[in-house]
Amino acid sequence: MADTEQGYDPKVQVKETGPQVHTLELLSTDAELKGSSFQRGIAVLGRVFGIVSGVEARGIERVADDERQAPAPNTYTRIFLLWLSSALTGNNIIVGLYGPSLYGLDWSQATICATLGVILGISILTWFIATLGVHLFQFYTRYAWIIQILTLAIMIGSAGPSFITSPFLSPDIPRATVSDRLSFFSLCFASAITWAPASADYFVYFPTATKSWRMFLAGSTGMSLAMALTTILGIGLATGIDSNQAWIEASLASPGSLLAASFSNLHGFGRFCAVILLLGTVSNNIPCTYSAGLNLQMLGRYGPRIPRPLLTTLEVVIYTVCAIVAREYLREIMENFLPLMSYWIVAWLALCLEEAWIFRRGRDYDWAIWNNPNRLPMGLAAGASFVFGILGAVLGMSQSYFVGPIANALPQKCDLGMWLAFGFTAVVYPAFRCAELRVVGR
Known about the structure:
- With 442 residues, the chain is mainly alpha-helical.
- It folds into 3 domains: 2-53, no CATH class; 73-280, no CATH class; 339-442, no CATH class.
- 63% of the residues lie in helices and 3% in strands.
- The protein has helices spanning 37-53, 75-87, 90-103, 107-132, 135-159, 178-193, 212-239, 245-253, 255-261, 267-279, 282-297, 308-325, 330-359, 380-396, 405-409, 417-439, and strands at 12-16, 22-26, 398-399, 402-403.
- It has a two-stranded antiparallel sheet. A two-stranded antiparallel ribbon has the order 3-4.
- A hairpin with a 2-residue loop joins β3 and β4 (402-403).
- α2 (75-87) packs parallel to α7 (212-239) and α11 (282-297) packs across α12.
- One of its GO terms (cellular component) is plasma membrane.
- It is found in: Membrane.
- It comes from Aspergillus tamarii.
- Its main location: membrane.
């Protein structure tokens, strides 16, 4: 994690403007504000925006202990509900559709792969919550799950009778192979593990005395229940497509149309439920958008000077335009882009795990040096290992646009990119890191 924070100016400090509003200033040794007119203007804009609106303007800077929330009885319940609400959304149902429709798995095969993949991915990402670990968002997630789970329960009642839970879907569909099971398992794992890099962003205001193991249980339970439920619902919808003409036509239009068709038995009320299910994806978009603003601030030493709300607004405009333009290609995007994201995330994951348990041996980070590049690792070992990990991903990937030589050499094509990316990175990082420590000393 420290490698990603290299490059920050040690003179960027936090200036208090109120109990919950924080902005960034570039301070010189004589406490005079320096920089270009644009930089000063951005800093002033951030302060004014935070004071007038009350919106959290804090960026990537460390939250001091005296600014954190006091311990409360519902702390771990809030963690549980945040992840439950974030994953109990329609887009995770779409992941489940691909088990029967893309890989030819029946109900039991797809359900086992999905549940195991989701739980494994969630367990790993919540390790980051417990180890590293937004006021309005947290308030929203305390209650959003109620509406979302009621809507999903209505979907089960409406569409459940059409689910085919028999061992084999149809004699016309080829039997699923081991490679199909592994590919779908990897897809479900990828849908969960993609939360890992951002998983600590939402609990920075929690007290430092928060128990890691309780955070792990709360986070993993909430996310696992939500993602397992929604993915299995998607599997059920996919198994019933061939026996329902309306579902066939809807699935040819888009995955979203299939979700709406699952409520068709309820007529007007069903259309209302479909709208509620669609609006529920807000719970999934909020944390992603929040974290993306922090990620943009980490791109360079000047990033923290741009207010996070301004970056967030820019992101929303960009991804809204992209969503409108690409709305007809959601299936292709989910099939191709989700595994691609998992390649770099598992390589990053291998770096973090080995740094934490081999070189730091479970010891905490020195958070006081988070923005001091002279004391942080240079990232040479991490960068070189990451390149090896991506090489492994390229060799083992099996996508519609490219099949790696290792995947192509298998009797049955299977996407091994994620597993090879993790393996290649994990093998070379210890040697590279030892060399970096010996030569550089940090």
